[in-house]
Every structure is written in C-alpha cells, then in structure tokens.
Design a protein that fits this description.
Strand order of the largest sheet: 3-2-1-4-5-7-6
CATH superfamily of the domain at 6-157 and 182-204 and 265-292: Vaccinia Virus protein VP39
CATH topology of the domain at 6-157 and 182-204 and 265-292: Rossmann fold
CATH class of the domain at 6-157 and 182-204 and 265-292: Alpha Beta
Number of strands: 7
Number of helices: 11
Radius of gyration: 19 Å
Distance between the termini: 45 Å
Strand content: 15-25%
Length: about 300
Amino acid sequence: MNQRDPRHVFGLDRQAVALAFDKASASYDAAAALQERVRNELLTRLDELKVSPAAILDLGAGTGHASRALKRRFPSASVVAVDIAPGMLERARLQSRWLRRFHRVRADAYALPFADGAFDLVFSNLMLQWCDDLDAVFVEIARVLKPGGLLLFSTFGPGTLAELRDSWAASDDARNHVNHFFDPHALGTALMHASLGEPVLDVDRIVTGYRDVVDLMRELKAIGAHNVTAGRARGLTGRRRLGAMTRAYETLRRDGKLPATWEVIHASAWGSERREPENMGFPRETVISPSAIRRRGS
C-alpha cells in the first residue's frame, strides 16, 4: 500500500486511542472546557426532539458527566456509560451516585456487548472522531438502537485544528501530525448506509485562543487528544521541525492569542428496520441487555 494512502496515513490505532484517554483520565475534566460546551449544546437538543427513552447508551462517556445529566433528565431510564478507556470509567464512577446512578461498561464502539435493539437513545459527545471506519461504527450503533430510537451525536469536522495542521505542514510535510476528521457528507453517507433514517447535520465553528503553541499542545495532551494515526511521527519531534512549526503558527497570532479552530458537527438520526451487516470484520462474542448488567461497582 502506498505510504500516502489515506487509509494508511490516517488509520487509527485502537490500542493507542484507549491508552491516550486512560492516561488523560485524571486531567481531562480540568482541561475539557470545549467538550463541556459541546456536551451542553447536545443535551439541549433533546428538548427539541421530545423523546422519553427507557434505555440510554452514552457512547464514549468519558468521565461520565453526560451520563449523569441524562439520568437527571430521564430519572426512570436505565443509563449505560460505555468507554474504551478504563481510567475514564473509573472517573465516571464519581458521577454515578444514589439517585443519579448509572451503569459503566468498558467496550469498543465497533463491538458493543448489547443485544439488538437494546436502547431507545444513543447519545455520543465528541467520540466518533476516534473511529476511522464510519460504516462499521454506525452499523453497530444501528444494531443496538431500537427501530424508531434516536441517535444524537457530535463530532469534529475537517476544519478542526486547521491552524496547527497547516503550521506542521509548513515545517514537516512528510509526516502526519494531526488527526484526520470526517466531513458532514461522509458522516451523512455512512448514516444512510447503516439504514439510520432522517439524518440531520449542522456545523458550528468555535475559535479558542492560546498563549502559545505549547499551551495548545498541553491542553490536547490533558484531554487525551494525541495524534494516534498510523502515519504519525514516531519518537521525539526534532527541535528544528518544532521550531519551524511554532514560527509558522506565530504568523497567525491575533490580539495577543494564537487561534485554534474547532469545527463541531451536531447530528441526529433515527433507528429503522435493521439488516444484517455484511463482512463488517468485528467480533460479537458477548451480547447482554442493559437490564442484565449487575449493579455491583455501578
């Protein structure tokens, strides 16, 4: 395969994704102001959709703030927080208390350990950018979503971190330094391929300011947003390349701050009659329903 084939360069290392977020679990909440803002916006959209789910999946739950908010909003519903990183789920335990108790399950979005049609609502805030096979992940989501159930998610679009990407390209165009993000067209197509109906997508752009490049890179590290693509630079980045990238980024400074653009895609779709996936290539070794999850450790 050609080294510049996007499937090779931008393919995600699942183990590296899990490890990055596991390491970031302790520092995540303090650095995740943008993630909180997007989560709150996604939650407000539930008011417009007027659903009353009995079983909810928070996919890519992280430290559990959305799971707790969903349990508060729908107190009689069973809420299941799923994440690939055990450290995140351990932090989520702090959000699961008494009247706001929810289940926590470690799983990969490509192979969810739940029965077909287990959930009325699948909620996912800023997780799908960590999945490089949209068809596979949406087919799996469609499988666990009841016909007529709601999928509501946010993810980052291709304009995200454009300044950082362009600055790296100016100094080191031989290697990939920033994760790849899917555009709305690719997301919409994958939703339809998975037979998820009536997809609606809209895009918001948020620009945040940083004191310097190091400030931005510290934040990315604190939230686990490392470059984990197959074509990423391995080992330490040379001082010369880092300096060249920094100088390129400095040309963008405005009002004393370096800008970073976040292109946020909000989307919804509805479950429909499912068909069996063909050769999706992910295992289904264990299938359980939300009600079958034992309460111990919740």
